[in-house]
Amino acid sequence: MTITPAFLYRLSAGAVVAAFVLNLTGGLLHPVVDGNSHSVDSLTAWSSPWAQLILLVGTVVQLAALPGIYAWIAPRVGVGGLVAFVTLYASLMLTALPHLAVEAFVSYELASDPGTAHLVPADGSLFPSTTFTAIQTMFGLAYMLSLIVLGVVLARSSAVPRWIGIVMAIGGLICVVPWPEAPGVTGLVIELPRGLAFAAIGVLILRAGGEHVRSAAAERSARPLPV
Q1: In this entry, which stretches build a coiled coil (predicted)?
Q2: Vertex 106: Cα angle to 105 and 110 (nearest 5)
Q3: How many whole angstroms separate alpha carbon 42 and alpha carbon 36?
Q4: For residue 145, what are the contacts with CB-CB under 8 A and spacing of at least 6?
C-alpha cells in the first residue's frame, strides 16, 4: 500500500472524529459528587477510573491526529493560524495528558486506599503539588486563549465553513467562564469545545477524499487568464 498525503489526511480525519466520540463519552461519564469532580468520592465513584481512561485514550488519539488536521488547513490560515495551533497543541500536551494520567493512575489509587485518601486535596486540585497546579493553570489559560484565536483565524479564512471557526472561538470563551461542576454538564463544557470543531473539519476532509485544501494564491494562479 502506498502511503499518500491524501491517505494521511483521511487517517487524521477519522482519528479526530473518533477522539471526539471518546472524549465526549468520557466527559459525560466523568463523575461529579457534591460539585467536585476530583474529590475522593468522585474518584471512587462507579465510573472511575474508566471515564478518565477513556478520556486519556481519546486525548492521545486527538493529539496524534491534530498535526494532520492542521496540515490540511495550513495553506489558508497563515502565520496566525500556525502560532495559535502550536500554542493549542503544546498546552493540550501539558494540561490534558498530565491531568488525566495523574487522575487515572495516581489520584484514583490514593483515593481508593483509606490510608492515603487524605492525600487527595479537598479543593479539587487533584494532586498536592504547587508546581503541578501552577502548570495546569498557566497552560490551561494558554489553551483557552489559543482556542479562541484559532477559531477567529478559521472564521476569517476560507479554509473551512465560517461556523466551524465561530464554534471553536465560542468554545474557548465558554471554558473561561467558571461554571459550577455538575454531572454531565462539566463534561460537555470541557469536551465540546476541544473536539466538535476539529471533528467537523475531519468530516470535511473525509468528504473531500483527503484532497488538500489549496491556498488562495494557488487558486488564483490556477485560474485561466482572461482573453
Answers
A1: none
A2: 125
A3: 7
A4: 87, 172
CA 63 from centroid of its chain's CA atoms: 8
The residue type at 169 = A
List, in sequence order, every residue forming a beta bridge with 33; answer none if it has no partner: 36
Distance from C-alpha of 22 to C-alpha of 91, rounded to nearest angstrom: 20
Longest dimension (CA), the chain: 84
CA-CA-CA-CA torsion for 158, 18, 60, 93, nearest 10 degrees? 30
For 8-56, write each residue's pLDDT tens digit: 999 999 999 999 999 999 999 999 999 899 999 999 999 999 999 999 9
Is 39:107 a contact under the CB 8 Å cutoff?
no
Give this prediction's pTM.
Answer: 0.89
Closest CA to 136 of 102, 182, 184, 169: 102
Residues facing residue 36 across a β-bridge: 33
AA identity, residue 36: N
